[in-house]
């Protein structure tokens, strides 16, 4: 697991997590999370076949005595973030108790997910199931190709918070989705 959080309070910007044998991000046992301009890309190809999604959200655990203990996700927001990988259909997994009221949202994200696509109440202006067209995943190059659907599709409101990408490139308005701004972004 690339980022394994248990009941944590995490604020991340320009975070890039890739190629994990399991989840890239596991937000488990509740907590508070905010991710802005991040890329979670799982194209694991080393040894065993990956069976876990790129992202999991979880709000419970089993105690030593076998009882189920719940811990609500107070907040888990993804803004201008790519969640993608090589699994066939879904790179987002929910392991949430019903009626606990865990809170999560996805705003201007590019996501590989059939399940999440049908959940309109927590989604705002996201792109579903379109390849982000990274330059070369086998070489770990997650720069966006000039024809990427993520170019110029981010929400510019976050530019004041995260004005530069992970490499120090100034984000245009509207910015690219993900941790890496395409230098040829012309607001496609």
What does this structure look like?
The radius of gyration is 16 Å and the shape is globular. The chain has 188 residues and is mainly beta. The protein has one helix at 114-117, and strands at residues 3-13, 16-18, 25-36, 39-42, 55-58, 60-62, 68-70, 73-79, 82-85, 92-95, 105-107, 110-111, 123-124, 127-128, 134-136, 141-144. Strands 1, 3, 5, 8, 10, 11 and 13 form a seven-stranded parallel beta sheet that branches. Strands 2-4-9-12-14 form a five-stranded parallel beta sheet. It contains one helix and 16 strands. Strand 6 (60-62) and strand 7 form a beta hairpin. Helices cover 2% and strands 38% of the residues. The N and C termini lie far apart (34 Å).
Nutshell version of this structure?
With 188 residues, the protein is mainly β. It has one helix spanning 114-117, and strands spanning 3-13, 16-18, 25-36, 39-42, 55-58, 60-62, 68-70, 73-79, 82-85, 92-95, 105-107, 110-111, 123-124, 127-128, 134-136, 141-144.
Cα-based radius of gyration, to the nearest Å:
16 Å
Can you count the helices? 1
Shape: globular
Tell me about the largest β-sheet: 7 strands, parallel
Alpha-beta content class: mainly beta
Sequence stretches where pLDDT stays below 50 over 5 or more residues: none
Q: What's the β-strand tally?
A: 16
Strand content: 35-45%
Distance between the termini: 34 Å
* Whole-number mean pLDDT: 93
Helix-strand topology string: EEEEEEEEEEEEHEEEE
Quaternary state of this entry equals single chain
**In which range does the helix fraction lie?**
under 10%
């Amino acid at each position: 697991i690339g980022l394994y959080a248990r009941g944590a309070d995490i604020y991340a910007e320009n975070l890039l997590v890739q190629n994990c044998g399991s989840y890239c991000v596991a937000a488990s046992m509740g907590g508070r999370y905010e991710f802005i301009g991040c890329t979670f890309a799982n194209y694991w190809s080393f040894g065993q076949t990956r069976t876990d999604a790129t992202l999991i959200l979880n709000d419970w655990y089993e105690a030593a005595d076998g009882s189920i203990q719940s811990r609500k996700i107070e907040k888990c927001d993804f803004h201008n973030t790519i969640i993608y990988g090589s699994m066939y259909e879904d790179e987002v997994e929910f392991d949430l108790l019903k009626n606990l009221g865990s809170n999560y949202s996805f705003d201007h994200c590019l996501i590989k997910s059939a399940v999440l696509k049908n959940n309109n109440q927590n989604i705002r202006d996201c792109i579903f199931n379109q390849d982000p067209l990274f330059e070369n995943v086998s070489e770990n190059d997650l720069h966006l190709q000039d024809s990427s659907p993520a170019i110029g599709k981010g929400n510019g409101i976050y530019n004041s918070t995260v004005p530069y990408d992970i490499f120090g490139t100034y984000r245009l308005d509207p910015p690219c989705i993900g941790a890496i701004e395409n230098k040829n972004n012309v607001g496609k």
